[in-house]
Write a structure and sequence with these properties.
The complex is a heterodimer of chains A (511) and B (378). With 511 residues, chain A is mainly alpha-helical. Chain A has 3 domains: 2-51; 90-177 and 373-506, MetI-like (MetI-like fold, Orthogonal Bundle); 184-358, no CATH class. Chain A has helices at residues 2-8, 19-51, 82-115, 120-133, 138-150, 184-212, 217-245, 254-268, 272-295, 301-325, 336-353, 377-404, 407-415, 420-450, 462-474, 477-506, and strands spanning 160-162, 166-169, 172-175, 177-180, 357-360, 363-364, 369-370, 373-375. In chain A, helix 7 (217-245) runs antiparallel to helix 8, helix 8 crosses helix 9 (272-295) and helix 14 runs antiparallel to helix 16 (477-506). Chain A is globular. The two termini of chain A are 47 Å apart. With 378 residues, chain B is mostly helical. Chain B folds into 2 domains: 92-102 and 162-372, Orthogonal Bundle (MetI-like fold); 103-160. Chain B has 16 helices and no strands. Chain B has helices at residues 22-30, 35-59, 75-79, 87-92, 94-99, 108-125, 132-152, 168-195, 199-214, 217-231, 240-266, 269-277, 282-297, 299-312, 324-331, 342-372. Classes of the chains: A mainly alpha (511), B mainly alpha (378).
Amino acid sequence: MAVQDNIAGPPRTAFYNDPVIRGIFYQLVVAGLVIAFLTWIILNTAQNLAAQNKSTGFGFLFETSGFGISFTLIPFDRSSYYWQAFVVGLLNTLLVAVIGIIFATMLGFVLGVARLSSNWLIARCATVYVEVIRNIPLLLQLFFWYFAVLKAMPAVRQSFELPLSIFVNQRGIIVPRPLPDFEIFWVAVTAVLALVAAIAMVVWATRVRTKTGHYPVVVSRASRIAGLIVTFGVGYLAISLLGTVVPALSLGPVFPLIGALVLAGISLSPYGRYGRVFIGFAIGWAVANFLLGGMFAGLGEGIIVLGAALVALGIAWTMLSADRRSAATEGKLPLALPVLIVIALPALVYWVTGASLAFEIPVLERFNFAGGLQLVPEMVALVLGLTIYTAAFIAENVRSGIQAVSKGQTEAASSLGLREGDRLRLVVVPQAMRVIIPPLTSQYLNLTKNSSLGAAIGYPELVNVFMGTTLNQTGKAIEVIAITMLVYLTLSLTTSAFMNWYNARVALVER
Amino acid sequence: MSFSFVREQMVEPAPAPVNTAGPIAWARRNLFATPSDSLLTILAIVLLVWAIPPIYGFVMPNFLGGDAVPPGGTVEQCRVETAGACWAYISARMTFFIYGFYPAEEYWRPNLVFALGTLLIIPLAIPRVPFKRTNAILFFVVYPVVCFYLLNGGVLGMPSVPTEQWGGLLVTLIISLVGIICSIPIGILLALGRQSKLPIIKTLCIMFIELWRAVPLITVLFMASVMLPLFMPQGTTVDKLLRALVGVTLFSSAYLAEVVRGGLQALPRGQYEAASSLGLSYWKSMWFIILPQALKHVIPGIVNSFIALFKDTSLVSIVGIFDLLNTVQAASSDIDWSSPTQAITGYLFAGMVFWVFCFAMSRYSIWMERRLDTGHKG
């Protein structure tokens, strides 16, 4: 009976033992404490500000700043307002973040794949890189690049000269400044349109092939012609480059022309692969010769040419064996057609409209370079440091993402008869990306936040310009810090909103 | 008559297998398996041959075939144009890098702090050593108090040393230790609050965590050093080091809360339900059932956030505190030792110190992860 009573009757606990009431009580207590604490802080602050005769408010944003900024994307001088300083800082932060993200992603993916390489030496090198870089504070690395490396570069008069009129010295990197005229606008528009068209073409052709088993006839015919043209162009380039290594071959513009025609002809014959291997060999030789010459300046020229030839032979051998393994199938759309579309259309417009893209070459004058675009050393050091540091973390994300794809997936793909490249491209990488992208996004966010360390080496980004100079000049601590934190908060919340959306989109739908 | 299904000749002997053991076989398998592998190997070797000899020559002293000036050398040796790293400078300024401006006759006090810390942390890190609870209380509660009085002085006849004189590695270790010790309880409470069913508490915790995780540490430090004095009642002065400590603690507790939340979420629901069915109250079930399991699972994560915190302490140099990086930076303008390689040697030294600490911790975290892995994971 007692048991029945328990079930039937209302709960006999006292109201202060009821979990719901207790929960409400606790929450009221916590909320009260928080409100009391905030009130205490606000009252204190008001008192302190009154004692210092300081006013509050955002009116200072529309006052003249009176300071200059060394590196700005928009016009800024002493008569500009504080809000313009804010915009300058924000733009500089975003600029460094975007450049850093692009480079860090490329380096990070290469390193992440290299860590999993079956090649012992490559895997070891990547591991050493990751373990060294991610265990040293970023600020220390920035100091190293800025004070120990870039500031130790030669003075202006002894600048290092890199190819393409790029100079490196204490004051940063000086590159030719592009001077586009108005017609370049049309070329740029065409380039974008051509890129879109090329992607659309590839998507369409792949769809048709998935449905019917063949690429559309138009596309495969156009590809063949495009292949011919591209082979001719690349062959011309390769033979011209070969002339830089073997001077006997640089007989004038006719020779590369004939050679390129021969190569294009060969590409139609069954021996096309040897033509491609030759092009790879020639370009590889020239590039390796240039790089080795720069790296081992002390060695004799003959040795370097021979070494470069060995490297180029390695490239040729690799291409040949890769070519042999992948028999001619309709597996992949030849790259030649999209490449030709993306390059040829803008080139055509360039030629038709008579646009001109001149470059202002930096020239060394008595004390400094005249002309050219100067990349300040602060920015170079910041981009370098952020890229190198973040790449180590991205590499770890990529590695764990690839490892997270179970071995069964690779085996299943093999049992379907897919070759190694297709296994990676169609089975492993799409699944790995699902694991890689969320941590990758938070690395991007970290990089953006870490760009605030540029303040320590004097790069005029948001924290430096706004939380540093502006705060010191106006003394509006609360307003300035609130605005700065709000910027980062917005960036961060936007990123996590994107991440949630992505996660929901790609989440594994399980049975 | 002959049977066509019986072979008449012997089968050609198969070729002897290529070596499968020994260095050549190893190289063939790991370095030259395919043409592209060979190409990559050659390129890597070229790169190493290019990069390693100059680095080796720069870092190693002359009796090991390098150009560096070993400890005990003179500044004149470092000023030679071909000289490598100036290790003599590091050894001459070593006490500055470790103790900052701490008075030399009181060095025994930081030394005692280092020794006590080592004595407490080693048994804490080895899982087999007993008395974990006592050890943890000693390290997390008693040790910081002892350290404070030992370093600050003013008691037991020890002369007082204000925090402005603390510096170098000492301050780096203090900030990271205080940061982690204070942020563990705050982080656990925040994580519990974020998992709570009470909406107001949950919202407050989420707001707190997301605010600190969204902004860079440098803005937090700026905020702590500029705004904390404004928040206090008039006339209170907040010590500069304390401001940085508050900033670091707020920042790292938010990160730690997320780590602990991972552990809480990883526990199966059954554990929570079993605790309730035993009639344990919320705090009892957390203390006896949930947290011991959750925290054990996230030890690697806690160590990782400690590594991040340890690296991040270098940022306090921006708000003017003399941690290891700032002492190195300040010493690099020391005219007595000015030489072309002075700055780079200082950074190499600081980098090595940070690296040794972080690498040791990350190895420990990996080792713990393997140890805690029961092999039950899907």
